[in-house]
Amino acid sequence: MKKFYLFTVLFLFTFFANAQIKVQGVPRNDIPGTISSNQLNTAVTTNISFSDIQYWVGSGTNEAAFVVQWNDSKNPDALVWGFRWNGNATGEDMLKAIAQADHRFFTLLYPGTQFGTAIGGLGFDLNGQNTNALYKNGNTTYPLYPVSGIVNTAAYDFDDYTAADAGDHWGSGWYNSYWSYWVKDPTDADFGYSGVGASSRVLQNGSWDVWNFNPGMNSFPVSSTLTPVSSYVASTNFTNGYFMVNEEWFGHTNGSVNFIDNNGQVNYRVYSNANNNHAFGATTQYGTIYGDKFYFVSKQAADGGDTQYTPGGRLVVANAQTMQKIAGFNNIGGGDGRSFVGVNENKGYIGASNGIFVFDIANLQVGNLIAGTGGGGQYAGQIGNMIRSSKYVFAVKQSAGILVIDPANDTLINTIPGAFHSIVQAKDGSIWAIQDQKVVNIHPTTFATTSYNIPTTKYLGSWGAWNAGSFSASSKQNVLYWINSINSFSSGTQIVKFDVTTKTFNENFAAIPGQTGTYKQIPYGAGLRVNPVSDELILNTTESGFGAHYQKNWIHTINISGTITNTKILNDYYWFPALAVFPDNTLPAVSNTFPSQVNVNSTSTIDLKTIVSDEDNLSSAIVKTVKSNSNPAAVSAVINANDELVLTPLASGTADIRISFNSNGKVIEKILTVNSTASTLATAEVKKIEFSIYPNPVTDILTIKTQEKILNVSVYDASGKLVNTQLNNSQINVSTLPNGMYILKAVTDKGVYQQKLIKK
């Protein structure tokens, strides 16, 4: 009897020690027998109930709990989420929904097996570093990044994966470790081991699912201590900090944008997070905020190698406050994307490899090519940076020079020849362009140029593989900055400062850090921009050496003394940062010195340059416009080339003049009441001696007579709207204008003249 009993015990031991169990539906006989006691059921009294769960994913009347237990000695260990749904749902549905919603949770899955999707690895960003990535077989050169929280594989190779961040929760395996699956439904008294996988697990209202990792094939009981996961909250405040637009990893991912907040937190891919894993186009090189919209420009519409993110096109328009997508455009006129500049509340210009195209901001439509801005070939006549002054748009065109465009009628009015790389506007309103070894001052209205040679260093051009370049201007000081270069292909190690007022160079203003050792820090993309509020320089660098070295990226903050005050180290990835962009939070402000009412009995001027400013934009670039005139028969109101409001009394009466101030797309308006109390006949007669127009009234051709050099001429209708600027040998063709009264304004080299004309 004792022998029989002993035989029975040995038989049962052998059976359990070699019993075949199922792991996610797959029969296994290699699981050690020591875990068999935990494979039937386990009585667990958890420390929480459904009411304690903090983070619920999904919506519906049914609820289930989802637990992941890593058993890795990192705390908190066993984390719990909640899942809500209607209709039917599986354990796989719950896992994927949580992985997509919670950007801290990431998974390794093998979909499409005969047993459904196999769960190979589960991880959690425990230290809040946003470093969710996996290395396969120790390959740190090409990390695998989860999309919607998932990295997919096509084999049971789960043992080959490790987490990029050793501080995260991570467990994966199949042969050396594995995930056991425990479930409990409302009618079950205890947790039971599930032999089926997540795809076959049918959830019930009140179900519990526990993924319990067995590292080294060692078993652990389901923990009685569960920690509710706090809700994942993506950054939605994009006002306090700055953006970094990224080219991203060509052949792998489309463009993206990160946000660095003032608390030092780097928020990665904020546009993709806000738009269900949508991205920009391929090689995103430019971004700018105008009004309440963010414009992202990419060279191509999509990166064909990106299987992770949905491409957005060559131009993507997003809400600057929320990052929500507004529109995307694959075609921006037939060329590749380069740049964007806002012109007024309703219009912008797209710079492309084949010219400048009008963009209808109000209706979100790409318009026509501006005549004269195209030509030169795809990579021989491309458009670079563009700026909007208070009067004109200045655009750099490869090989051709600086194009000057009148935004009132989208007309190319001048070309300043030369081989330029970039263009900016200084605090005092002067326009500056840069060449290989000189900076060139361009008068904002006459377009006359003056060159200043850079003493010893050069500027690195970027037409071959275009980027926006490091040439930057301060909005607080009258200075310019850029990064020097050794030659046309290699950047230097110094930031150069140029004083616009004194015309002096400091070629050693600040040093680029990280210049010791084999591999150096080198600027990438534009590399340098100036924060318009703090006046600090933002310098982005990567590591020399090509290949995997480009995963190393830094963002440095440099004060006005040239000292580095802060350094951010980005998570390892091939970001290829292109350009820093700063939020536009404030409206322009009009000084109390701007009158609400004036009396005029002769031509008077009000200097608008000195009465309007903007805390986070260049005040000299604010566009001033006469939006309306309630009584144009009494008073003419125009704004001249010097940003002066010119009031000319035409008859006795009162007029309300509405003035618009547009600072980078943010607009405020002021009303000026003008009382006209006297005739201006005597003044007009005096001016006719040196300036006159005839015939008046006119039917078709109006001639201007003056001994002075005419710089530009404008014709305004009775409401103050600009209707004509075309001057040909001192003559203007007005034949197409409707009959009525108009105001002609001419700017000469000696003054500004205004006269009333009648079209009949």
TrEMBL record:
Keyword Cytoplasm recorded: no
InterPro entries: DUF5074, Quino_amine_DH_bsu, Secre_tail, WD40/YVTN_repeat-like_dom_sf
UniProt domain Secretion system C-terminal sorting: residue ranges: 693-758
Pfam families assigned: DUF5074, Por_Secre_tail
Stretch forming the signal peptide: 1-19
Alphabetical UniProt keywords: Signal
Name of the protein described by the UniProt record: Secretion system C-terminal sorting domain-containing protein
